[in-house]
Design a protein that fits this description.
The chain is an alpha+beta fold. It folds into 2 domains: 54 residues; 151 residues, Distorted Sandwich (Glucose Permease (Domain IIA)). Helices cover 21% and strands 36% of the residues. An 8-stranded antiparallel β-sheet has the order 11-7-8-9-13-5-4-15. It has a 3-stranded antiparallel β-sheet with strand order 3-16-14, with no helix packed on it. A 3-stranded antiparallel β-sheet has the order 6-12-10, with no helix packed on it. Helix 1 runs antiparallel to helix 2. The relative contact order is 0.20.
Amino acid sequence: MKKKIKIHKEGHKTLLFTGLVLLAVNLSAALIFQNEITYWIAGSFSVVILIAFAYFFRMPYRELVIEDNKIIAPADGKIVVVEEVDEKEYFKDKRIQVSIFMSPTNVHVNRSPLAGTVTYQKYHPGKYLVAWHPKSSEKNERNTVVIENENGIEILVRQIAGKLARKIRWYLNEGDEVNQGAELGFIKFGSRVDLFLPINTHLEVDLKQKVKGGVTVIGTLPE
């Protein structure tokens, strides 16, 4: 039996508010213009808007990939960065950075790339540079989470707001236990998620590759 697509909880209030505003607009148009063509135009426009918002907040059913030694994609989107960098916030040493750009058409649920314990979490207010800007990982509004697996290996996940995204939601705090593929958070509209991995991680993705959150294997952890 095919599983249904749900509307994510982050979209419930947005859709309700949008629906009420559109209803008010339609009623106002009906009272002011009293014209059948105007009814159809306003009604059609309202339906399109509601469908677009529902599509953005969709949460399709997925068979999640669960493998202890694998790093699973935390988000849908396209790989825009694969490089060795100095991670300055937490590790303060060299890491492999893998960045996923999420367009407004992608599913925007963020998932934990591995199972473990949250050893660090910090929200940073900031700017709203375009999500693919090289400095967005350090300058934009962002939330950083570090997860340590049962073997003591830590992975840093950073949610980054983009030019359109103005709201980062995170569901994990220090000390929380999290399962691989569990919801980590949600970013409204276009945005980006960065991973900072051990330098000897075996990567299984390439630049510009499209990935699927909770499904695509980003890399294999060192033993």
